Amino acid sequence: FIIASKTSQNRWGFKIRDIFIYMSYGFRWNFILNQLLSVYLDLLFSSLLEVTNVRPLDNTAKYVNYVFGAIGATISLLVLVGVYFFTLKVYRTKKQLGQYISNTSHNEKGNEFLKRFGFMIKSYKSEKFSQLLYPLLMTVRSFVFIVAIIFLQSAPLVQAIVPCVLTVVIIGYLLKYVPFKHKCQQILTLIYEVGFLVACGTVVGLLV
Fold this sequence. Notes:
The chain is mostly helical. Helices cover 80% and strands 0% of the residues. It has helices at residues 2-5, 11-53, 60-99, 104-117, 134-151, 156-177, 183-207. Helix 3 runs antiparallel to helix 5.
């Protein structure tokens, strides 16, 4: 970003600067998203391990671990529902701001809400609610993948196929809805997803 800002102000300079700005902006968003996903996956993985690894419940300690694991798994599931409805709330608030231009009090409340939580949609187009669902899809993929790792240990091929299928769904979503505002970030995300699909497909090929 610093290098781009100091680039000479000619046509190519502006193009290079814009590319750096888009990349740095996308990196900041992805960094936040990845940190949140990391915490979420830690909670989900440790909770499911506690649920599956303590049977039989032959002592108090195992029973307590089982209870806490079940609570953590329930919270992880509720997070998915919460992310969906919270994204919907942000989307509706932004839409309502455009409808109630003359309502000062409504605008103040809406602007305050978006000021706090608008980061959820900054990187994305918001003409349609479906364009804001990429973070949710990433969370769902992580959730299903962790569940497959824990409960399908006897079927490694199925474990490898699960992320392949989910990644194909996400690539299809990216191509159909083109959710990112900046073309550069859209392309980078597609490259990442395709690379991840190739890696998963390679694992499937080795297991077949």
